[in-house]
Amino acid sequence: MTDIIIQGIYGRMGHALVEKIAARADCHVVAGVDREAGHVGDIPVYDSFEKLPCRGVIIDFSSPAGAVAAARYGAEQGLACVICSTGLSADDEAVLEAASAKTPVFRSANMSVGINVLIELARQATRVLGGEFDIEIVEKHHRNKLDAPSGTALMIADAINAEAGGRYEYIYDRSQVRQKRGDRELGISAVRGGSIVGEHEVLFCGPEEVVTLQHSAGSRGVFADGAIQAALYAAAQQPGYYTMTDLLRGKLPCV
Question: Is the N or the C terminus of the chain less surrounded, counting Cβ atoms within 10 Å?
């Protein structure tokens, strides 16, 4: 039985995690960390990691500052961390990298297994079509999402660009530019509205055909399921930096 500590337990993803974990026999939530102390059902919630009386794998769905705090605490205590927060800066990511020298750190801006399969397919498509097809990414999220473009859209773009040897320049806005599309452009567009959980579309646009890869999340449960899989995986690892590619290795022939 794997013990889980949820940072951001009062949030929507925190509640989704509590619900999903309650239905499993291989892990359980021993504590939460959030803005103020309290309880979620029978689960005690603390307002800082330093007040935790227990140990467990940390799953973080909070904020960039929260992710950094989780990684630092995990490194100090030797607790595996699953960092799911988005909007992290390069300095924040550097803290995660440093923490991974002391404890397993699992990092993904999107914990959906399906979206990570899409990323692998995008890599393959780039390998075959890149250079001949223009590439555009369109992401859609609910009206309350703070960062744009989404961390997932950037994950997809980075995977494509790495596969293409770094040839692409990310273009987020063409409204002020009166010129035709450049060969090295990779367009990324963001839509915010209503209660859209998360949709990502990758278009490979050729002279007379378009190949589209698309993923839609029907509920936050898919992200909770992926985070739980990541926590169980991280709990069994040595210190290091891990991603969904590591978790999927052996399941996908293209990874």
Answer: N
Query: Where do the structural domains in the chain lie, given as residue ranges?
Result: 2-111+220-248, 113-216
User: What residues contact 194, with CB distance under 8 A and at least 6 apart?
Assistant: 142, 143
- Computed on alpha carbons and rounded to an integer, the radius of gyration of the chain in Å comes to 19
pLDDT over 90 at 175, yes or no: no
Cα 112–chain centre separation: 8
* Catalytic site includes residue 141: yes
- The sign of the torsion formed by the CA atoms of 225, 227, 231, 237 equals positive
Q: Could you tell me the pTM of the whole model?
A: 0.76
Local structure of 128: helix, strand or coil: helix
Domain covering 113-216 assigned CATH 3.30.360.10 in the classification: yes
The CATH class that applies to domain 2-111+220-248 reads alpha beta
Alpha helices, H only, 23-86: 64-77
Task: For residues 190 and 29, give the distance between their C-alpha atoms in angstroms, rounded to a whole number.
Answer: 35
Kindly name the residue from 15, 20, 28, 145 that is annotated as catalytic: 145
Active site residue 28: no
Beta bridge pairs of residue 116: none
Residues 6+ apart with CB under 8 A from 202: 118, 122, 125, 135, 136, 137, 156, 160, 212, 213, 214
pLDDT the model gives residue 111? 86
Record the tokens describing residue 42, joined without a space. Answer: 């029978």
For residues 8 and 34, is the Cβ–Cβ distance under 8 A?
A: yes
Which of 140, 141, 200, 215 is an active site residue? Answer: 141
Single out the residue of 9, 63, 12 nearest to residue 31, CA to CA.
Answer: 9
